[in-house]
Amino acid sequence: MTPPAPKPWLPPGLSAPARRALAGAGIDTAEQLTAHTEKEVLSLHGLGPKALGPLRAALAASGLQFALPQEIE
User: Fold this and answer.
1) Tell me, what DSSP letter sits at residue 14?
2) 63 φ/ψ angles, rounded to the nearest 5 degrees
3) First to last CA, the chain
4) CA distance 66 to 73
5) How many CB atoms lie within 10 A of CB 55?
6) Whether the predicted pLDDT of 72 surpasses 80
7) 13 or 43: whose pLDDT is higher?
8) What separation in angstroms does the CA of 17 have from each of 13, 46, 62, 64, 66?
9) What is the pLDDT of residue 70?
């Protein structure tokens, strides 16, 4: 028996390059995205600042958020 397909989590309207950037980084779920800061996500080739708003909204809809940057002591 095959496992059920994962629930689509990417927001509608997210550009194809942004989708490929996330997939190329191995980010396939909203939960995996929470392991990364916004700065880390922006460093992915093909993902720009316009994608952050929809990604934030998709995370918030699931009660999640981007990882917080670690403070340097």
Assistant:
1) -
2) 75, 25
3) 51
4) 21
5) 22
6) no
7) 43
8) 11, 5, 23, 23, 20
9) 83
User: Is the confidence at residue 73, as pLDDT, over 70?
Assistant: no
Convert the pLDDT of each residue in 43-66 to its tens digit. 999 999 999 999 999 999 989 999
Max distance between CA atoms of the chain, in angstroms, equals: 51
For the chain, list the strands marked E by DSSP: none
Tokens linked to 35: 């392991």
Asked if pLDDT for residue 30 goes beyond 60, the answer is yes
Give every CB contact of residue 69 below 8 A, 6+ residues apart in sequence: 37, 39
Are 47 and 57 a contacting pair, CB within 8 Å?
Answer: no
Q: How far is CA 53 from CA 38, 49, 65, in A?
A: 10, 8, 12
- 47: which 2 tokens? 């993902």
